[in-house]
Amino acid sequence: MSETEVMEIIRNSLNELLRWVGFGTLTGLAAKAIMPGRDPGGAVGTMLMGIGGSVIGCGTLLFFWRDAQIDPISVKGFFAATMGAFSLLFFYRLLAGSFFAEGNEYDDRLAHRTRKRSRRRKILEDVIG
């Protein structure tokens, strides 16, 4: 193998890596736009979710339609990857428990009143003594 062949392999590998990073970021952002709210993870988490979503989405599509021709970096691939990233985000939130609020409305009102009284007491203590 000559030096030019090695450089060509490295250049192609880096190009492919940058394509996947960019594509993963776009699909992760699209999935977060579909399901707004507070999510953990910053840019790296969004990118990894998009890349994982692309593998899951395109893999699921190929599992159910074996004759499907899909390139992950295409319009069909973008849609499948976004749905895969959306499903990752959905199941993360489901398992993390952020869809369900524990307690009831009465508990929330009671806690609010208790905090309010505590704040008043602290203010009075500061003023008086």
UniProtKB/TrEMBL annotation:
Keywords: Cell membrane, Membrane, Transmembrane, Transmembrane helix. It comes from the Bacteria. The chain crosses the membrane at residues 41-65, 77-95. It is a multi-pass membrane protein. GO terms for cellular component: plasma membrane. It is found in: Cell membrane. Belongs to the UPF0410 family. This is Transglycosylase. It comes from Fuerstiella marisgermanici.
